[in-house]
Write a structure and sequence with these properties.
This protein is mainly beta. It is 6% helix and 41% strand. The chain has one domain. A hairpin with a 5-residue loop joins strand 2 and strand 3.
């Protein structure tokens, strides 16, 4: 069985509304994350939808299979789940 291909997303910029724009250099996937009331993901360019996308900031890297929604998690305060 083949494992999912992994692509790393990089934070490009932050908006004045605390939104974040992320880019996958490997396939061109581009998305905006809005985190004001939970996490809202807006995919602008889908890129390779078969690949698992991950990313992080402040030295924390997460992917969807490792994340929890716990409000006590330091990763939720500093890193966002991307897929």
């Amino acid at each position: 069985m083949f494992e999912d291909e992994m692509h790393e997303m990089k934070l490009l910029k932050r908006g004045v509304d605390d939104s974040e724009e992320w880019l996958c250099a490997e396939c061109g996937r581009r998305m905006v994350l809005k985190v004001d009331k939970g996490i809202e993901r807006i995919v602008k360019v889908p890129g390779d939808e078969q690949a698992r996308h991950y990313g992080g900031k402040f030295g924390i890297s997460m992917n969807a299979s490792l994340a929890t929604e716990s409000p006590d998690s330091a990763a939720n305060a500093e890193g966002h789940i991307i897929h």
